[in-house]
Amino acid sequence: MEIRDKVVLITGASAGIGLATVRRFAAAGAKLALVARSADALNHLAEELQSQGSDAVALPADVSDPKQVQKVIEETVRYFGSLDVVINNVGQAAVGTIADLNPDDFRKTLDLNVFGPLAAMQAVIPIMREQGGGLIINISSVVSKMRIAGMAAYAATKAALNMLSDTARDELASENIRVITVYPRSTATDFGKNALGVRQKQRQGSSTSADTPEFVAEKILASALHEPDEQYME
Fold this sequence. Notes:
The protein is an alpha/beta fold. 44% of the residues lie in helices and 15% in strands. It contains six helices and nine strands.
């Protein structure tokens, strides 16, 4: 896909990988719908992008609420007139071994990491069908293909997202709606600090070999441009 002048909605847009992705897509000429819970951070970001010549709108929302997801999809189309790309980036971890994992924390991450992207996909698919196609990029994690003590809940949510992506890719291919799964690895963000549950030694963002958010954003842009089924960080 050629990104210039395409309408791109990004969740988790106010920090980390999401923020870096916003800036990278803005540099590529995209029109941006910015989604995150923090209205102040989003409004500041939208103003910054607008001052740089980008077309951007702030749409504060809690992605774990399907009604709010539906609303931001509709508001994006109302504002721009179309929606070409949805990047389901927002996510959170729940840490804890199987023996002591808090089920309520696990449910919260399921709502955000699985049901949030599902709600976005279900809201945008009818729009993309009417437009004649579109692109959905789901941000997973290499953790979904690993067994790491204390990270089972997060890995399980991303494994579920992988299967939603894989199946949707097959179901929607004939309608020119493409679905890509991106697999970041350890990234230098506050992801670990924001995890639910008992704090353990930080596994995300603490390693000297961690990728920068900007590196991951570049890979996400590459996935939009070249449209592989899966995008890894190699």
